[in-house]
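Thread: magnesium ion complex, take 2
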Amino acid sequence: MAIEKLPPQLANQIAAGEVVERPASVIKELVENSLDAGATRVDIEIDRGGSKLIRIRDNGAGIPKEELALALSRHATSKLKSLDDLEAIMSFGFRGEALASISSVSRLTLTSKTADQSEAWQAKAEGTEMAVQILPAAHPVGTTIDAVDLFFNTPARRRFLKSDKTEFTHIDEWLKRIALVRRDIHFTLKHNGKSVRNYRPANTETQYLQRLGQVCGKAFAETCLHINCNHNDLALTGYLQAPSSASGYAETQYFYVNGRLVKDRLVNHAVRQAFSEYADGVSPGYVLMLELDPYQVDVNVHPAKHEVRFHQSRYVHDYILQALQSAMLQSAELALAPQHE
Ligand code: ADP
Ligand code: MG
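Output below.
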């Protein structure tokens, strides 16, 4: 066969294989874009587990009319200019692939208005060349993206979708993860026209414990230990299952590094080690947020960005271990302290 350049739609569909696995991954990409755009409220609406409709509406900065077509094209991003930026990336996005990928495997419309525009505009990319059409629309400042009929044109991938209920569960779980760390954001979720989640902004500790209860269950929220450790160049905050609770909370294990949820054996190991003195063998629950200099950690390890690499992993591990141990020791001392009359 002769060498030919792939038509844009096909190239995007191939790239979509990496980032768009199922409705939950579409929602992840779109909501992260809303957060990158400074939204304080994000409303998610899905029909049939997201396979029929995914709609994300935000009140972020919006996309200027003249950038709508670019936003839909591949390798177009407003978040990264050079390889140096990648070293210290703070935004969720940076590959400029999500919108192009999603729009190549669904019927996507993008509607947006910026504060200094008097009108809103709607864009969609169609056909193998992904030609972009732009029409006037009605929309407040912010952005709404509709992705309809996910994988309608890639039947092999469509067949991989599970039941609506399973797809919903993936979405719900992802929303929990983001709701725990973005306490400032009001998130709502509607499924088949029915409101199923409403995470109100949690700017005070009391409000946050409420959100923690919504996400991790009341029992966890009411008994957990608070972690708040901040010295040298690291800060670890969050919540740890009380060592006295009999069972583990294996489904409540959330670890964030600079606001990103990551899977990391390091933290699991540190938590288990801290627990081993009290309750050996349990898989404890935790919601922990680690903040450190972005130059001390690589986030660009994996396309889905679930993994990170610490430059000084031993140091980070020991820091977490000590923070947990001292919180546990403190709570044990409190429990043992003589009760004052
Ligand atoms: P990335 O997030 O990696 O930059 P995307 O394909 O997800 O790539 O988005 C492309 C660009 O479109 C973003 O860089 C941003 O400028 C713009 N954009 C996408 N979604 C939104 C949104 N909800 N609000 C404002 N701008 C957006
Ligand atoms: Mg993005």
